[in-house]
Amino acid sequence: MPSILLIRHAQASFGSADYDVLSDTGHAQTAALVAGLERRGIRADQVVSGGLRRQRDTAEPCASAVAVPLQIDERWDEYEDRDILTHHSEVAAGLEHLPGDAPLSSRAFQEILNQALAGWIEAGERSHSQETWDQFSTRTQGALSDLAGSLGKGQTALVISSGGVIAALCAALMGLPPTALIAFNHVSINTGIAKLTVGRGGITLVSSNEHAHLEEADPRLITYR
């Protein structure tokens, strides 16, 4: 049975001028991820990443470890947090710190983002954001469907994406309402793994947010932002 491992990128640089750069912790998490995959004997037939730097920098060591070329598919990119916050929040905030932004802790930012995500999802096609919830959902589910359809019997694909993408897909596979993305996303661990299987009945979520590779390497590597 084909399987897909959805992996959240390693820790980026929250609150810096460029969020889309792995932190020192992020590089250590990536090394732990690769070591964990090797210990488990995972032999991937495809390695896919979104186009964001933090996704690619997490994916490239994985692709090298399994000796498979890295494929870039921008449909696996994360939603634009600042765009969503601009249209669905009264607080000027983002993953990157820009002039005029109020200094926010990761926890405070997450609370603001959660409310904005709820408004974005509820607005649907009425949202004035550059990408509506419906468009985001369509592109990410399309990426998953196409990848699942490309896998042969017993093949495995690794996908390095982002917390919101993985959360949305997990919620949909479990038949939960779209707003369940918020709960999944809130506890998403950097380099956490969701396992999917592809069968005659479709795609099934087997497990989510698995991070034993971090616990084994160093529990201090467990981060949520």
Distance between the termini: 33 Å
CATH superfamily: Phosphoglycerate mutase-like
> How many domains in all?
1
Strand-pairing-aware structural class = alpha/beta
In CATH, the architecture is 3-Layer(aba) Sandwich
Strand content: 15-25%
Order of helices and strands: EHEHEHHHEHHEEH
Shape by Cα distribution = globular
Strand order of the largest sheet: 3-2-4-1-5-6
CATH class category label:
Alpha Beta
| Radius of gyration, taken over Cα atoms and rounded to an integer in Å | 17 Å
Largest sheet properties: 6 strands, mixed
Question: What would the average pLDDT be, to the nearest integer?
Answer: 92
Q: Would you identify the regions where 5 or more consecutive residues have pLDDT less than 50?
A: none
DSSP helical segment count: 8
Helix content: 40-55%
What name is given to the CATH topology?
Answer: Rossmann fold
Count the beta strands: 6
Written account of the structure:
The chain is built from eight helices and six strands. It has a six-stranded mixed sheet with strand order 3-2-4-1-5-6, sandwiched between helices. The protein has one domain: Phosphoglycerate mutase-like (Rossmann fold). The protein has 225 residues and is an alpha/beta fold. The two termini are 33 Å apart. The model has no long low-confidence stretch (mean pLDDT 92). The chain is globular, with a radius of gyration of 17 Å. 38% of the residues are buried. A hairpin with a 2-residue loop joins β5 and β6. The longest helix is centred in the middle third of the chain and has 18 residues, at 106-123.
